[in-house]
Amino acid sequence: MSLDPFDRKIIAALQDDARMTVADIAERVSLSATPVSRRLKKLEEEGVIAGYAPLLDAKKLGFPLDAYLTINLQAHSDDIIDRFENAIQANPYVIACHAVTGEMDYLLHVTARDMEHLSQITLKTLVRIPGVRDVKSIVVLESIKKSRAVPIE
């Protein structure tokens, strides 16, 4: 889908505040509410806007520890990959999982209450998934930049 300047301004406005009303977006992008509403519907139907969700503060919800874990599998058979990915989907503490290139097979973003909790997640859950060969962890000391916004060029 090709985006014109108005579509880009609408998306930028929503990335700033997804709770913005159609009227507020219209004022910000210099269109009336009706075309903004039509454009929003089209962006949603095309999947450019995949949904709306609140940005939660994990620390205030009791999960101040962020960690990234790299995982290697013993083999790349369909059975091992399916078992691993199903286990990851079911784990609420894994907030993102990416199949990656390089030395490791997967990169996980994990949230935890503290180091002991991270240890439990790692040693009692992740390393016990059949087919996992090794797990390495990187604990986040401080987040310098954290954004879910996509560049709108």
TrEMBL record:
CDD domains: HTH_ARSR. Gene3D superfamilies: 3.30.70.920, Winged helix-like DNA-binding domain superfamily/Winged helix DNA-binding domain (1.10.10.10). It comes from Croceicoccus naphthovorans. Coiled coil: none annotated. GO terms for cellular component: cytosol. One of its GO terms (molecular function) is sequence-specific DNA binding. The lineage of its organism: Bacteria, Pseudomonadati, Pseudomonadota, Alphaproteobacteria, Sphingomonadales. This is AsnC family transcriptional regulator. PROSITE patterns: HTH_ASNC_2. One of its GO terms (biological process) is regulation of DNA-templated transcription. It comes from the Bacteria.
